[in-house]
Amino acid sequence: MNAADIQHPQATDQLVEARDLTVRYGAKRAVDGVSFSIPKGRVVGLLGHNGAGKSTLMKALVGLAPTEGALSVLGLDPVKDRVTLLESACYIPDVATLPRWARVGELIRMMSSLHPHFSAERAAALLQRTSVSPRDKVKNLSKGMVVQAHLALIAAIDAKLMILDEPTLGLDVLSRKAFYEMLIDEWCDGERSVLISTHQVEEIESLLSDVLMLNEGKLVLSISLEDMDQRFVALSHDASVAQEMAAAHPLLKYRVGPGPNGNAALFDGPPPASVEALGRRVRPSLVDLFVALTRKPELDRTQF
Amino acid sequence: MQTWDPRQPIYQQLADILAAQLLDGEPTEGTAMPSVRALAGRYLLNPLTVNRALQALGDEGLLESRRGMGLYVRAGARERLKAVERQRFLETEWPRLRERLRRLGIAPAQLNWEERA
Hints:
The complex is a heterodimer of chains A (304) and B (117).
Chain A: H1 9-12, E1 14-25, E2 28-39, E3 43-47, H2 54-61, E4 68-73, H3 82-88, E5 89-92, H4 104-114, H5 120-128, H6 143-155, E6 161-165, H7 173-186, E7 193-197, H8 201-204, E8 210-215, E9 218-224, H9 225-231, E10 232-237, H10 242-247, E11 252-255, E12 263-268, H11 273-276, E13 280-282, H12 286-294, H13 297-303
Parallel strand pairs in A: 3-7, 3-8, 5-6, 6-7
Antiparallel strand pairs in A: 1-2, 1-4, 8-9, 10-12, 10-13, 11-12
Helix pairs in contact in A: 5-6, 6-7
Chain B: H1 10-23, H2 36-43, H3 47-59, E1 63-66, E2 70-73, H4 77-104
Helix pairs in contact in B: 1-3, 2-3
Protein backbone atom coordinates (compact mmCIF):
# COMPACT_ATOMS: atom_id res chain seq x y z
CA MET A 1 0.00 0.00 0.00
CA ASN A 2 1.35 3.46 -0.78
CA ALA A 3 0.50 6.99 0.22
CA ALA A 4 -2.03 7.43 -2.57
CA ASP A 5 -4.15 4.62 -1.15
CA ILE A 6 -4.78 6.40 2.12
CA GLN A 7 -8.38 7.41 2.21
CA HIS A 8 -9.98 10.32 3.89
CA PRO A 9 -10.70 9.52 7.57
CA GLN A 10 -14.40 10.28 7.25
CA ALA A 11 -14.60 7.50 4.71
CA THR A 12 -12.64 4.90 6.67
CA ASP A 13 -13.16 5.92 10.31
CA GLN A 14 -9.38 5.80 10.71
CA LEU A 15 -8.05 8.47 13.02
CA VAL A 16 -4.43 7.61 12.30
CA GLU A 17 -2.92 6.03 9.20
CA ALA A 18 0.81 5.45 9.03
CA ARG A 19 2.48 3.72 6.09
CA ASP A 20 6.18 2.94 6.19
CA LEU A 21 6.74 5.74 8.67
CA THR A 22 10.35 6.48 9.57
CA VAL A 23 11.84 9.05 11.93
CA ARG A 24 15.60 9.59 11.78
CA TYR A 25 17.77 11.15 14.43
CA GLY A 26 20.98 11.61 12.47
CA ALA A 27 21.96 8.18 11.19
CA LYS A 28 19.74 6.37 13.71
CA ARG A 29 16.24 5.32 12.73
CA ALA A 30 14.34 5.89 15.96
CA VAL A 31 11.17 4.75 14.21
CA ASP A 32 11.86 2.38 11.38
CA GLY A 33 9.30 1.83 8.64
CA VAL A 34 6.19 1.26 10.74
CA SER A 35 2.70 0.85 9.28
CA PHE A 36 -0.47 0.84 11.35
CA SER A 37 -3.82 2.52 11.70
CA ILE A 38 -5.98 3.58 14.62
CA PRO A 39 -9.74 3.49 14.02
CA LYS A 40 -12.17 5.48 16.12
CA GLY A 41 -13.41 4.24 19.47
CA ARG A 42 -10.25 2.33 20.41
CA VAL A 43 -7.94 2.19 23.40
CA VAL A 44 -4.52 1.45 21.94
CA GLY A 45 -1.52 0.52 24.04
CA LEU A 46 1.92 1.42 22.73
CA LEU A 47 4.44 -0.92 24.29
CA GLY A 48 8.19 -1.07 24.06
CA HIS A 49 11.34 -0.97 26.15
CA ASN A 50 13.05 2.32 26.92
CA GLY A 51 14.52 3.64 23.68
CA ALA A 52 12.24 1.50 21.49
CA GLY A 53 10.85 4.62 19.80
CA LYS A 54 7.53 5.09 21.62
CA SER A 55 7.98 8.77 22.47
CA THR A 56 9.40 9.53 19.04
CA LEU A 57 6.43 7.89 17.34
CA MET A 58 4.03 9.88 19.50
CA LYS A 59 5.87 13.11 18.70
CA ALA A 60 5.66 12.29 15.01
CA LEU A 61 1.89 11.87 15.31
CA VAL A 62 1.52 15.45 16.53
CA GLY A 63 4.04 16.90 14.08
CA LEU A 64 6.91 17.32 16.51
CA ALA A 65 9.31 15.09 14.61
CA PRO A 66 10.20 15.14 10.90
CA THR A 67 8.98 11.97 9.21
CA GLU A 68 9.46 9.96 6.05
CA GLY A 69 6.71 7.80 4.62
CA ALA A 70 2.99 8.53 4.70
CA LEU A 71 1.27 9.78 7.82
CA SER A 72 -2.25 11.05 8.21
CA VAL A 73 -3.69 12.02 11.60
CA LEU A 74 -7.35 13.06 11.67
CA GLY A 75 -7.01 13.44 7.91
CA LEU A 76 -4.21 15.98 8.32
CA ASP A 77 -0.50 16.06 7.68
CA PRO A 78 0.95 16.48 11.20
CA VAL A 79 3.91 18.59 10.09
CA LYS A 80 2.15 20.86 7.60
CA ASP A 81 -1.17 21.18 9.47
CA ARG A 82 0.23 21.10 12.97
CA VAL A 83 -1.78 24.00 14.37
CA THR A 84 -5.08 22.65 13.06
CA LEU A 85 -4.17 19.16 14.27
CA LEU A 86 -3.38 20.28 17.80
CA GLU A 87 -6.83 21.85 17.98
CA SER A 88 -8.45 18.44 17.58
CA ALA A 89 -5.93 16.07 19.17
CA CYS A 90 -4.76 16.10 22.79
CA TYR A 91 -1.25 15.15 23.72
CA ILE A 92 0.45 14.75 27.09
CA PRO A 93 4.18 14.21 26.50
CA ASP A 94 6.26 12.16 28.91
CA VAL A 95 8.00 15.32 30.07
CA ALA A 96 4.74 17.19 30.64
CA THR A 97 4.53 19.57 33.57
CA LEU A 98 2.03 22.15 34.67
CA PRO A 99 3.38 25.56 35.73
CA ARG A 100 4.13 25.25 39.44
CA TRP A 101 3.16 28.81 40.34
CA ALA A 102 -0.33 28.61 38.82
CA ARG A 103 -3.62 27.78 40.49
CA VAL A 104 -5.60 25.05 38.72
CA GLY A 105 -8.48 27.49 38.15
CA GLU A 106 -6.08 29.89 36.43
CA LEU A 107 -4.96 27.10 34.12
CA ILE A 108 -8.58 26.46 33.19
CA ARG A 109 -9.05 30.16 32.32
CA MET A 110 -5.80 30.17 30.39
CA MET A 111 -6.82 27.10 28.37
CA SER A 112 -10.19 28.73 27.63
CA SER A 113 -8.53 31.72 26.05
CA LEU A 114 -5.91 29.66 24.19
CA HIS A 115 -7.78 26.65 22.87
CA PRO A 116 -10.81 26.91 20.57
CA HIS A 117 -12.23 23.48 21.51
CA PHE A 118 -11.67 23.68 25.26
CA SER A 119 -14.65 23.77 27.61
CA ALA A 120 -14.05 25.37 31.01
CA GLU A 121 -17.31 23.90 32.37
CA ARG A 122 -16.24 20.42 31.36
CA ALA A 123 -12.80 20.90 32.93
CA ALA A 124 -14.44 22.02 36.16
CA ALA A 125 -16.79 19.01 36.08
CA LEU A 126 -13.88 16.64 35.46
CA LEU A 127 -11.95 18.22 38.29
CA GLN A 128 -14.87 17.47 40.61
CA ARG A 129 -14.07 13.79 40.20
CA THR A 130 -10.65 14.36 41.70
CA SER A 131 -9.48 15.68 45.04
CA VAL A 132 -8.02 18.74 43.29
CA SER A 133 -9.73 22.10 43.80
CA PRO A 134 -9.53 24.98 41.30
CA ARG A 135 -8.02 27.04 44.13
CA ASP A 136 -5.10 24.65 44.61
CA LYS A 137 -1.69 25.74 43.46
CA VAL A 138 0.08 23.19 41.27
CA LYS A 139 3.17 23.29 43.50
CA ASN A 140 1.10 22.11 46.48
CA LEU A 141 -0.34 19.08 44.68
CA SER A 142 0.98 15.54 44.94
CA LYS A 143 2.31 13.91 41.78
CA GLY A 144 -0.87 11.87 41.42
CA MET A 145 -3.04 14.97 41.78
CA VAL A 146 -1.02 16.88 39.15
CA VAL A 147 -1.54 14.08 36.65
CA GLN A 148 -5.28 13.98 37.44
CA ALA A 149 -5.52 17.74 36.98
CA HIS A 150 -3.63 17.46 33.72
CA LEU A 151 -5.99 14.79 32.45
CA ALA A 152 -9.00 16.90 33.49
CA LEU A 153 -7.61 19.81 31.48
CA ILE A 154 -6.81 17.71 28.42
CA ALA A 155 -10.05 15.70 28.45
CA ALA A 156 -12.01 18.97 28.44
CA ILE A 157 -10.85 19.49 24.86
CA ASP A 158 -13.45 18.34 22.38
CA ALA A 159 -11.17 16.14 20.29
CA LYS A 160 -11.13 12.77 18.59
CA LEU A 161 -7.71 11.53 19.59
CA MET A 162 -5.75 11.60 22.84
CA ILE A 163 -2.08 10.69 22.98
CA LEU A 164 -0.60 9.94 26.39
CA ASP A 165 3.09 9.24 26.80
CA GLU A 166 3.64 7.28 30.03
CA PRO A 167 1.04 9.29 31.92
CA THR A 168 1.17 7.16 35.07
CA LEU A 169 4.95 7.02 35.43
CA GLY A 170 5.92 7.38 39.08
CA LEU A 171 2.36 7.23 40.40
CA ASP A 172 1.27 4.87 43.15
CA VAL A 173 -1.29 2.17 42.43
CA LEU A 174 -4.31 4.13 43.68
CA SER A 175 -3.40 7.20 41.61
CA ARG A 176 -2.92 5.01 38.56
CA LYS A 177 -6.29 3.40 39.09
CA ALA A 178 -7.98 6.79 39.52
CA PHE A 179 -6.29 8.03 36.37
CA TYR A 180 -7.44 5.11 34.21
CA GLU A 181 -10.91 5.20 35.74
CA MET A 182 -11.30 8.83 34.71
CA LEU A 183 -9.84 8.18 31.28
CA ILE A 184 -12.23 5.32 30.53
CA ASP A 185 -15.28 6.87 32.13
CA GLU A 186 -14.85 10.39 30.77
CA TRP A 187 -13.05 9.99 27.50
CA CYS A 188 -13.87 6.68 25.87
CA ASP A 189 -17.29 7.12 24.30
CA GLY A 190 -16.94 4.73 21.39
CA GLU A 191 -16.00 7.55 19.00
CA ARG A 192 -12.83 8.96 20.48
CA SER A 193 -9.62 6.98 20.64
CA VAL A 194 -6.64 7.08 22.92
CA LEU A 195 -3.06 5.98 22.30
CA ILE A 196 -1.25 5.33 25.54
CA SER A 197 2.26 4.17 26.31
CA THR A 198 3.25 2.56 29.58
CA HIS A 199 5.56 0.00 31.12
CA GLN A 200 2.81 -1.28 33.39
CA VAL A 201 1.64 -3.73 30.76
CA GLU A 202 -0.18 -6.08 33.13
CA GLU A 203 -2.19 -3.27 34.59
CA ILE A 204 -3.62 -1.87 31.39
CA GLU A 205 -4.05 -5.08 29.42
CA SER A 206 -7.75 -5.42 30.20
CA LEU A 207 -8.30 -1.76 29.28
CA LEU A 208 -6.92 -2.04 25.79
CA SER A 209 -8.72 -2.84 22.59
CA ASP A 210 -5.51 -2.92 20.53
CA VAL A 211 -1.79 -3.08 21.03
CA LEU A 212 1.19 -1.73 19.11
CA MET A 213 4.55 -3.20 20.09
CA LEU A 214 7.79 -1.49 19.19
CA ASN A 215 11.21 -3.06 19.38
CA GLU A 216 14.24 -1.00 18.35
CA GLY A 217 12.10 1.25 16.19
CA LYS A 218 10.33 -1.57 14.40
CA LEU A 219 6.73 -2.56 14.87
CA VAL A 220 6.81 -6.20 15.99
CA LEU A 221 3.08 -6.48 16.63
CA SER A 222 -0.03 -4.52 15.73
CA ILE A 223 -3.16 -6.42 16.69
CA SER A 224 -6.48 -6.15 18.46
CA LEU A 225 -6.70 -7.96 21.79
CA GLU A 226 -9.47 -10.09 20.36
CA ASP A 227 -7.29 -11.21 17.45
CA MET A 228 -4.39 -11.68 19.82
CA ASP A 229 -6.42 -14.24 21.78
CA GLN A 230 -7.19 -16.03 18.53
CA ARG A 231 -3.73 -15.96 17.00
CA PHE A 232 -1.55 -16.73 20.03
CA VAL A 233 -2.18 -19.89 21.98
CA ALA A 234 -0.93 -20.37 25.51
CA LEU A 235 -1.00 -23.87 26.98
CA SER A 236 -0.66 -24.38 30.69
CA HIS A 237 0.90 -27.72 31.43
CA ASP A 238 2.59 -29.87 34.02
CA ALA A 239 6.36 -29.79 34.46
CA SER A 240 6.46 -33.48 33.48
CA VAL A 241 5.64 -32.66 29.83
CA ALA A 242 7.98 -29.66 29.64
CA GLN A 243 10.31 -31.47 27.22
CA GLU A 244 7.54 -32.28 24.75
CA MET A 245 6.37 -28.67 24.95
CA ALA A 246 9.86 -27.32 24.35
CA ALA A 247 10.29 -29.64 21.35
CA ALA A 248 7.36 -27.89 19.67
CA HIS A 249 9.36 -24.61 19.72
CA PRO A 250 7.07 -22.28 21.59
CA LEU A 251 7.63 -18.54 21.38
CA LEU A 252 8.11 -18.46 25.13
CA LYS A 253 8.10 -20.75 28.16
CA TYR A 254 6.94 -19.20 31.40
CA ARG A 255 5.17 -19.80 34.72
CA VAL A 256 1.47 -19.07 35.17
CA GLY A 257 1.16 -20.14 38.77
CA PRO A 258 2.27 -22.50 41.51
CA GLY A 259 1.67 -26.22 41.63
CA PRO A 260 0.76 -28.63 38.83
CA ASN A 261 -0.02 -27.03 35.48
CA GLY A 262 1.95 -24.02 36.63
CA ASN A 263 4.05 -24.00 33.48
CA ALA A 264 2.95 -22.48 30.23
CA ALA A 265 4.10 -22.37 26.66
CA LEU A 266 3.13 -19.64 24.23
CA PHE A 267 2.71 -20.40 20.54
CA ASP A 268 2.23 -18.15 17.55
CA GLY A 269 -0.60 -19.97 15.84
CA PRO A 270 -2.01 -23.37 16.75
CA PRO A 271 0.53 -25.76 18.30
CA PRO A 272 0.80 -29.33 16.98
CA ALA A 273 -2.25 -31.38 18.03
CA SER A 274 -0.05 -33.84 19.95
CA VAL A 275 1.26 -30.99 22.09
CA GLU A 276 -2.11 -29.29 22.48
CA ALA A 277 -3.44 -32.48 24.10
CA LEU A 278 -0.76 -32.23 26.81
CA GLY A 279 -1.85 -28.83 28.05
CA ARG A 280 -4.82 -26.70 28.68
CA ARG A 281 -5.54 -23.52 26.74
CA VAL A 282 -5.28 -20.32 28.74
CA ARG A 283 -5.54 -16.72 27.61
CA PRO A 284 -2.09 -15.54 26.48
CA SER A 285 -1.02 -12.62 28.60
CA LEU A 286 0.13 -9.44 26.94
CA VAL A 287 3.15 -9.11 29.20
CA ASP A 288 4.38 -12.58 28.25
CA LEU A 289 3.84 -11.84 24.60
CA PHE A 290 5.73 -8.60 25.07
CA VAL A 291 8.65 -10.44 26.62
CA ALA A 292 8.60 -13.02 23.84
CA LEU A 293 8.55 -10.51 21.00
CA THR A 294 10.96 -7.90 22.33
CA ARG A 295 13.73 -9.97 23.84
CA LYS A 296 17.17 -8.80 22.97
CA PRO A 297 18.81 -11.43 20.72
CA GLU A 298 21.86 -11.66 22.98
CA LEU A 299 19.58 -12.68 25.85
CA ASP A 300 18.24 -15.56 23.79
CA ARG A 301 21.31 -17.64 24.17
CA THR A 302 21.81 -17.18 27.87
CA GLN A 303 18.24 -17.30 29.06
CA PHE A 304 17.18 -20.59 27.59
CA MET B 1 -6.41 -3.84 40.96
CA GLN B 2 -8.80 -6.53 39.83
CA THR B 3 -7.11 -9.68 38.62
CA TRP B 4 -8.68 -11.83 35.96
CA ASP B 5 -8.41 -15.57 35.63
CA PRO B 6 -6.53 -16.46 32.42
CA ARG B 7 -8.57 -19.65 32.02
CA GLN B 8 -11.83 -17.84 31.32
CA PRO B 9 -12.82 -14.96 29.05
CA ILE B 10 -12.82 -11.68 30.99
CA TYR B 11 -16.31 -10.74 29.80
CA GLN B 12 -17.62 -14.00 31.26
CA GLN B 13 -15.95 -13.26 34.60
CA LEU B 14 -17.47 -9.78 34.65
CA ALA B 15 -20.89 -11.22 33.76
CA ASP B 16 -20.52 -13.62 36.73
CA ILE B 17 -19.61 -10.74 39.07
CA LEU B 18 -22.57 -8.66 37.90
CA ALA B 19 -24.91 -11.65 38.14
CA ALA B 20 -23.81 -12.26 41.74
CA GLN B 21 -24.59 -8.62 42.50
CA LEU B 22 -28.02 -8.89 40.85
CA LEU B 23 -28.75 -11.92 43.01
CA ASP B 24 -28.02 -9.73 46.05
CA GLY B 25 -30.42 -7.12 44.68
CA GLU B 26 -27.78 -4.73 43.40
CA PRO B 27 -29.22 -2.99 41.47
CA THR B 28 -32.81 -3.93 42.28
CA GLU B 29 -35.29 -5.10 39.65
CA GLY B 30 -36.74 -2.36 37.52
CA THR B 31 -33.83 0.01 38.09
CA ALA B 32 -31.07 0.99 35.70
CA MET B 33 -27.77 -0.83 35.37
CA PRO B 34 -24.65 1.35 35.69
CA SER B 35 -23.51 2.65 32.29
CA VAL B 36 -20.94 0.80 30.21
CA ARG B 37 -18.43 3.56 30.85
CA ALA B 38 -19.02 3.55 34.59
CA LEU B 39 -18.51 -0.22 34.72
CA ALA B 40 -15.47 0.00 32.45
CA GLY B 41 -14.01 2.63 34.77
CA ARG B 42 -14.81 0.68 37.92
CA TYR B 43 -13.36 -2.62 36.72
CA LEU B 44 -10.71 -1.03 34.46
CA LEU B 45 -11.94 -2.87 31.42
CA ASN B 46 -12.24 -1.93 27.82
CA PRO B 47 -15.83 -0.80 27.11
CA LEU B 48 -16.13 -3.49 24.42
CA THR B 49 -15.53 -6.15 27.08
CA VAL B 50 -18.17 -4.60 29.32
CA ASN B 51 -20.59 -4.56 26.39
CA ARG B 52 -20.08 -8.27 25.85
CA ALA B 53 -20.71 -9.00 29.53
CA LEU B 54 -23.94 -6.98 29.51
CA GLN B 55 -24.93 -8.66 26.27
CA ALA B 56 -24.47 -12.05 27.95
CA LEU B 57 -26.68 -10.99 30.88
CA GLY B 58 -29.26 -9.70 28.40
CA ASP B 59 -29.20 -13.02 26.57
CA GLU B 60 -29.96 -14.76 29.85
CA GLY B 61 -33.07 -12.61 30.18
CA LEU B 62 -31.76 -10.65 33.16
CA LEU B 63 -31.56 -7.21 31.55
CA GLU B 64 -33.74 -5.30 29.15
CA SER B 65 -32.92 -2.32 27.04
CA ARG B 66 -35.20 0.70 27.32
CA ARG B 67 -35.11 2.95 24.33
CA GLY B 68 -32.83 5.89 24.91
CA MET B 69 -32.39 5.06 28.59
CA GLY B 70 -29.98 2.16 28.62
CA LEU B 71 -30.19 -1.22 30.33
CA TYR B 72 -32.56 -2.04 33.18
CA VAL B 73 -32.80 -5.05 35.46
CA ARG B 74 -35.80 -7.07 34.32
CA ALA B 75 -38.62 -7.96 36.63
CA GLY B 76 -38.06 -11.55 37.79
CA ALA B 77 -34.31 -11.38 37.18
CA ARG B 78 -33.48 -12.50 40.73
CA GLU B 79 -35.90 -15.42 40.57
CA ARG B 80 -34.40 -16.43 37.25
CA LEU B 81 -30.87 -16.22 38.63
CA LYS B 82 -31.89 -18.15 41.73
CA ALA B 83 -33.41 -20.86 39.55
CA VAL B 84 -30.17 -21.13 37.59
CA GLU B 85 -28.12 -21.24 40.77
CA ARG B 86 -30.42 -23.86 42.30
CA GLN B 87 -30.12 -25.96 39.19
CA ARG B 88 -26.34 -25.66 39.27
CA PHE B 89 -26.25 -26.59 42.95
CA LEU B 90 -28.45 -29.63 42.50
CA GLU B 91 -26.65 -30.83 39.39
CA THR B 92 -23.01 -30.24 40.24
CA GLU B 93 -22.44 -29.21 43.84
CA TRP B 94 -24.94 -31.45 45.60
CA PRO B 95 -23.71 -34.80 44.21
CA ARG B 96 -20.18 -33.90 45.34
CA LEU B 97 -21.39 -32.75 48.75
CA ARG B 98 -23.53 -35.88 49.18
CA GLU B 99 -20.57 -38.04 48.27
CA ARG B 100 -18.46 -36.29 50.89
CA LEU B 101 -21.19 -36.61 53.55
CA ARG B 102 -21.44 -40.32 52.84
CA ARG B 103 -17.70 -40.77 53.00
CA LEU B 104 -17.59 -39.01 56.36
CA GLY B 105 -20.57 -41.03 57.60
CA ILE B 106 -22.74 -38.02 58.38
CA ALA B 107 -26.44 -38.86 58.51
CA PRO B 108 -29.18 -36.34 57.60
CA ALA B 109 -30.31 -36.24 61.24
CA GLN B 110 -26.91 -34.96 62.30
CA LEU B 111 -27.19 -31.90 60.09
CA ASN B 112 -28.55 -28.90 61.90
CA TRP B 113 -31.00 -27.15 59.56
CA GLU B 114 -32.45 -24.69 62.01
CA GLU B 115 -29.57 -22.85 63.57
CA ARG B 116 -28.36 -19.72 61.79
CA ALA B 117 -24.72 -18.94 61.69
